[in-house]
Fold this sequence. Notes:
This protein is an alpha+beta fold. It has helices spanning 2-7, 14-24, 32-38, 44-56; strands at residues 30-31, 60-63, 71-74, 90-95, 101-105, 124-128.
Amino acid sequence: MNNLLKNKKISETPFRLEVLSIFNNYKNAIPLSVIEKDLKSYNRITLYRTIKVFLGKGIIHEITISGEDSNYAICEEDCGTNTHTHNHNHIHFKCNNCGIITCVELEKYPKISLPNYKINQLEIQASGVCSTCNQ
């Protein structure tokens, strides 16, 4: 966890390490309210700045589903900060039963080609019943 911040050239602070450990405690995407609830003590501005730095450095990615608050999930280790390496070749799935949003990896991510358009980023969202609720 400490190496992640060093590798991304982000100074380690106790607060950043605490926020990062919260992300590591969850297997699914989490809203800001969960992070706020799990923090022992925090300044809201410092939290927003930390989230912004983590997003900018490719440590986390933001998941926005229409009509919902943003959720955040930890990125894979090889995720970078520019459009060529900051890729999320997975589907963001929201369960209609439990409300949890997960990043679902695919063996082969679909490719879409639009005539006369250059696609820099493709995000696929799905909703339904997750594997846990479907049992």
